[in-house]
Amino acid sequence: MIKVIFTGTESTGKTTLCRQISKYYNYPFIKEYSRDYLLKIDRKYNKKDLVEIAKKQIEFEKKYRNAKLLFCDTDLITLKIWSNYKYGNCDKFILKKIEEQNKEERLYLLCKPDIKWQDDSLRENPYQRQEIHNLYVTELKNYKKEFILISGQEDVRVSNTISAIKNIFPILSLFIFFIIL
Fold first, then answer.
1. pLDDT tens for residues 136-165?
2. Angle formed by the axes of helices 170-180 and 154-168, nearest 10°
3. Which residues contact 173 (CB under 8 A, 6 or more apart)?
4. How many CB atoms lie within 10 A of CB 90?
5. Which secondary structure element, helix H or strand E, spans residue 1, and what is its range?
6. pLDDT band at 181; cut points 50, 70, 90
7. Rounded distance, CA 174 to CA 121, Å?
8. 64, 63, 56, 57: which is closest to 7 by C-alpha?
9. C-alpha dihedral over 168, 62, 72, 25, to 10 degrees?
10. Partners of 100 in beta bridges
11. pLDDT greater than 80 at residue 38
12. pLDDT over 80 at 171, yes or no
């Protein structure tokens, strides 16, 4: 199975893009569980909540373990980055699970913070997006993950993403083509 992970800092169009690319290739996507979780709790979240979010995100991925291709609106690396940024460290459970996932075939699509910030009740860092984006670049490189940088305004991100997949990772494009047949 190939997992295509849409990642990046807040308000970079990851969810919208993930849904659109999933629809284009006609393969499932899993949403980012943290939004559902944070909307349900009746308090400010804490570091322990990130572990609960990680467990459910892992569960979502396992639900599609028989799929040949899966599009994911985030993964545990995001939780690690967020935990380190907000709390100064990350829970060992999350770190262990990232190491396990590091053995999987994952293609990362890193969305640049070059589109307009859209405020909502869960977003926290409208002015630190580039700083946090740089943390994503560092983490993906630390895990030796190849990634495609997705940029451009919202109306061209889908075509940019499809082109990037086809041009930079032709094997993945061929794989997707044969799966669809």
1. 999 999 999 989 999 988 778 999 888 877
2. 100
3. 165, 166
4. 21
5. none
6. very low
7. 40
8. 57
9. 60
10. none
11. yes
12. no
